[in-house]
What we know:
Elements: H1 2-45, H2 55-74, H3 81-118, H4 123-126, H5 133-155, E1 157-166, E2 175-180, H6 193-204, E3 208-212, H7 219-224, E4 240-243, H8 246-250, H9 254-263, E5 266-268, E6 272-276, E7 280-285, H10 289-294, H11 301-305, E8 314-318, H12 324-329, E9 334-337, H13 348-355, E10 361-365, E11 368-372, E12 389-398
Parallel strand pairs: 1-12, 2-3, 3-4, 4-5, 7-8, 8-9, 9-11
Antiparallel strand pairs: 2-12, 6-7, 10-11
Helix pairs in contact: 1-3, 2-3, 3-5
Amino acid sequence: xxxxxxxxxxxxxxxxxxxxxxxxxxxxxxxxxxxxxxxxxxxxxxxxxxxxxxxxxxxxxxxxxxxxxxxxxxxxxxxxxxxxxxxxxxxxxxxxxxxxxxxxxxxxxxxxxxxxxxxxxxxxxxxxxxxxxxxxxxxxxxxxxxxxxxxxxxxxxxxxxxxxxxxxxxxxxxxxxxxxxxxxxxxxxxxxxxxxxxxxxxxxxxxxxxxxxxxxxxxxxxxxxxxxxxxxxxxxxxxxxxxxxxxxxxxxxxxxxxxxxxxxxxxxxxxxxxxxxxxxxxxxxxxxxxxxxxxxxxxxxxxxxxxxxxxxxxxxxxxxxxxxxxxxxxxxxxxxxxxxxxxxxxxxxxxxxxxxxxxxxxxxxxxxxxxxxxxxxxxxxxxxxxxxxxxxxxxxxxxxxxx
Length: 403
């Protein structure tokens, strides 16, 4: 029986590894094709006009720019800290630049095609469907302005406030103030945002601080910079609790991360629950990515609530705002989530709206209330366009239902 279980486990792990490899294969194929398009248009619009530059030299330089972020990720453990951070930032900004270059260049291609068909657009702009210098310069200028604006927007941390009622008594508590901060993505991108987040948390004077995932992006940087220590400054009546998100599981040194967080006073709940002040339950749910990494199933939500006295309020931290019906049926009253970043920067907000029943804000569904935050930090490029970095201030009122 043990051998059979071991074989099944090994088979699941092999399937999961194959799935991950397939996903990464598709991603890098698409990444390569999109960058080839940008590189081709860059040569046609701009660089073919540089007299001392030949196509071979141009493509070598362009390939280095594209691969710099990948190099920082792959060689992460072997690079000195300053170089690792520099390469990471350069690669991250390229991801955002790539997105906007594609949008702008596709628009210009559409203009060129229309001009070729109709001949009505100004020749100074399109040179009758050919590649001219002006659109190339306009594309570069547009992308630089968007990146600069988005960087400034991401550095400002806002407060999103909600007042909600849970129709259950909570022991001696009538009210509870929760501060939620998600998607910190602590690592090489250090723009003082973490310190500002902690200042806001203390300004709010919360009873409870919760972190629903994606705390750490780079465990080596996190440990070397002792970034967890800053959380000792956070003051809250009932402490700080966290659940892990998909990016937390990307770290090879997750045990070390957990140890550092615990030492900083952050209690990590992994498919487990705790009763606080003999008044309400708090559950921390493992992220779905844990199943891919471990090859084993996470506990079901019903199992997490099994054995709890559901006469008390039940609050759950889950990184992704999914399985809402299962969450409701399991007796959870309030789900707190992040992950979506509200798209972080346009046009990805259009994607998150399609994927999730709620990608941002407050949703009430047949007794279950959901709050999804856009997150305090950023993943990849430290920019935001169409979303905000935020700390969430939740004022909960507990009220027994009328007889």
